[in-house]
Design brief:
The complex is a heterodimer.
Chain A: E1 2-13, E2 16-28, E3 33-37, H1 44-51, E4 59-64, E5 67-68, H2 74-84, E6 85-88, H3 100-111, H4 115-128, H5 144-156, E7 162-166, H6 174-189, E8 193-197, H7 201-205, E9 209-214, E10 217-221, H8 222-226
Parallel strand pairs in A: 3-8, 3-9, 6-7, 7-8
Antiparallel strand pairs in A: 1-2, 1-4, 4-5, 9-10
Chain B: H1 3-16, H2 18-54, E1 61-65, H3 87-92, E2 99-114, E3 117-126, H4 130-133, E4 138-141, E5 155-158, H5 160-167, E6 176-179, E7 182-190, E8 195-196, E9 199-200, E10 205-208, H6 209-215, E11 223-228, H7 234-248, E12 255-259, H8 260-303, H9 305-313, H10 318-354, H11 364-391, H12 394-399
Parallel strand pairs in B: 3-10, 5-7
Antiparallel strand pairs in B: 1-11, 1-12, 2-3, 2-6, 2-11, 4-7, 5-10, 6-7, 8-9
Helix pairs in contact in B: 1-10, 2-8, 2-10, 2-11, 8-11, 10-11
Chain lengths: ~230, ~400
């Protein structure tokens, strides 16, 4: 489903060039559960952002569902982000003035889906994630775990092809972090491709495929070790 | 994204930051209100002057002896003229159907005395028609009787000041006063009129035109006031007057016909220019409001960096972000303009309570211009913050907490 070939991403910090992604090649199949680990600055987040079309590689080829997406313009990339990609962030990034339901509704609003359809889908997903009673609370009235669950609801309400999670538990205590991970794993069981960046080795080990990155390169990929 | 959703998002963003939004609304409202209030005052001044003229009859034509050869200069009030403008000239104008009123006017100065009191005042010689043409009001008695204008009869009408000076609290009606060498019976006193067309209507005496001509020993009228049957006949009447007088004066164009309309039009232009310039001054405050909106929106963009990054991650293209922010500023501008309209009407109402005679009025073009300029400045100054928002890099904006 995701095919990266020879992806390079170079940042210029001051007058030194940092190779955030150095010649990355990666194939991801539908329904995989991948964890990406590695020290800070190893390029994990940049890889995730590149897959999520938030960041543009300087060179290389990226096929998402057999479409070469690096060559698309801003509007087309935005449409793919809207319809095929879900993001979950470490700091949740909920809009503070909107209620939980409104936050979940946001990607549907951006897609121009009718209010009745939106309400139904938001209601369904909040019910699945056990947030129905919190639907009309604002983010500051929710616990960290609840906030992240709202964020997951928002990321999955559009039925994306892939869910990208950047340190989803990094800002949570262990028990709510476990809650969040089990929700993500449950979604993965239902067929959603899950790619998760994490610092937590214990969390990383739960993934069926584990990737380790250092200095912008993939140094280990459990898929190839087992093969 | 649906239009309704864009509006909802923009309004929720605005209501989410109440202090900021209300400050921007206030700035916009003051800008719009100042445009409208200033133009209202200008328009009020214009109407005030117009009304003053209308009370004299805007469709009045004034026939002066002498020909003004150049345009733009004042009409020759004491021009040298080969032929007199006579009472017969005036009466001949009645032959045209277009003419409703003809009031010959003769002006001179003579002492008016009653018992020991004497006063030197302008003496106006005219006919009963004068009452209609100049819209005069009587406070006591009656105006000059409707008789043959060529007959000199010894009656007079006094201005209110003159009547008071000569008679004090005594009723002057029926008393005989001496004007120059003749005696006249007072038949009426004018209501207080104030100065109109340079003549203090309170401090004069009006006598029949034939009496005035004999009093001043002349055949020449000072001017003739002509009122056409209808306002639309003004130009035609002007031509008829010129033709008639020319025929009577052996083919010489030796009179000047001016319309009060022309004078009024000039005043109108002056006041419109005045109104527009004060409106322009008001517009400066609108631009200041626009700059304030730009600054505050720039701050808003940096405060909402994470939100913008999120919207991009959720799949909003740059153009969508731009539309969202422009909608916000457009809403601010429109809501501010609306509050400004209310403020302007409130202050106009207050001015009207304080000065009931002054016809304050917000002209429609000022309303449209005020709101339009508000919207344009809002969008114009909202453009830079909106573009900055649209160009934010999602990765860096999301990495910040």
């Amino acid at each position: 489903m995701i095919e990266l070939a020879g992806i390079n991403r170079i940042f210029t910090v001051g007058d030194t060039k940092v190779h955030a992604l150095a010649d990355i090649s990666l194939d991801v199949k539908t329904g995989e559960y991948i964890s990406i680990m590695g020290p800070s600055g190893s390029g994990k987040s940049t890889l995730l952002n590149t897959i999520g079309l938030l960041d543009q590689p300087d060179s290389g080829k990226y096929l998402l569902e057999d479409r070469e997406v690096t060559k698309l313009n801003d509007v087309e990339q935005a449409q793919i982000r809207r319809e095929r990609i879900g993001f979950v962030f470490q700091f949740f990034h909920l809009v503070p003035r909107l209620t939980a339901a409104e936050n979940v509704e946001l990607p549907l609003v951006l897609s121009g889906i009718t209010p009745t359809e939106r309400r139904k889908r938001v209601g369904d997903i909040l019910g699945v994630l056990g947030l129905s009673e919190r639907a009309h609370h604002r983010p500051d009235q929710l616990s960290g775990g609840q906030r992240q669950r709202v964020a997951i609801a928002r990321a999955t309400v559009t039925n994306p092809a892939v869910l990208l999670a950047d340190e989803p538990t990094g800002n949570l205590d262990r028990s709510s972090g476990n809650d969040v991970v089990s929700i993500l794993e449950e979604l993965n069981h239902q067929g959603l491709t899950l790619i998760m960046v994490t610092h937590d080795p214990e969390l990383g080990r739960r993934a069926s495929r584990r990737i380790r990155m250092e200095d912008g390169r993939i140094t280990r990929d459990s898929l190839h070790e087992n093969a | 994204m649906k239009t309704l959703d864009i509006i909802n998002f923009a309004t929720s963003a605005l209501s989410g930051y109440k202090l900021r939004t209300s400050l921007m609304l206030l700035a916009m409202a003051i800008g719009v209100a100042s445009v409208i209030v200033l133009t209202s005052l200008g328009e009020g001044a214009r109407r005030y002057v117009t009304n003053q003229f209308a009370s004299l009859g805007t469709n009045m034509l004034i026939v002066l002896p002498g020909r003004s050869e150049t345009t733009g200069g004042p009409p020759p009030l004491t021009g040298e003229t080969p032929r007199d403008l006579t009472l017969d000239d005036a009466l001949s104008l009645y032959r045209s159907h277009a003419v409703r009123y003809v009031a010959p006017v003769s002006v001179g100065s003579a002492p008016v005395s009653w018992r020991q009191r004497e006063r030197e005042v302008p003496i106006l010689g005219s006919t009963s028609i004068m009452l209609h043409v100049r819209h005069l009001q009587m406070s006591r008695g009656s105006f000059l009787p409707e008789t043959d204008p060529t007959r000199a009869i010894s009656v007079c009408v006094l201005g209110s000041t003159l009547a008071k000076e000569l008679f004090g609290n005594i009723t002057p009606i029926g008393e005989w006063v001496r004007i120059g060498d003749s005696r006249f019976r007072v038949i009426g006193v004018l209501a207080s009129e104030g100065v109109s067309l340079g003549l203090d209507m309170d401090d004069l005496a009006i006598i029949p035109v034939a009496s005035a001509l004999s009093l001043f020993n002349t055949n020449s009228l000072f001017r003739i006031l002509v009122e056409p049957r209808d306002y639309s006949l003004l130009t035609r009447t002007k031509k008829i007057i010129l033709d008639t007088i020319r025929a009577r004066h052996e083919g010489e164009d030796d009179v000047t016909v001016i319309s009060q309309d022309a004078v009024l039009a000039t005043f109108d232009k002056i006041f419109l220019a005045l109104t527009m310039s004060v409106g322009g001054i008001g517009a400066i405050s609108l631009i200041v409001a626009g700059i304030l909106i730009m600054n505050v929106m720039l701050v808003a963009v940096s405060q909402r960096t994470a939100e913008i990054g999120l919207l991009k991650a959720l799949g909003a293209p740059a153009s969508q972000i731009m539309v969202l922010f422009l909608t916000e500023t457009a809403f601010l501008a429109l809501a501010g303009a609306f509050i400004g309209l209310l403020l302007a009407y409130l202050s106009n109402w207050l001015v009207m309570q304080a000065y009931p005679d002054f016809p304050v009025h917000a002209p429609l073009w000022a309303l449209i211009a005020g709101v339009g300029v508000a919207l344009v400045t809002g969008l114009l100054f909202g453009f830079i913050p909106a573009r900055r928002a649209a160009q934010l890099d999602p990765v860096t904006s999301l990495s910040r907490r």
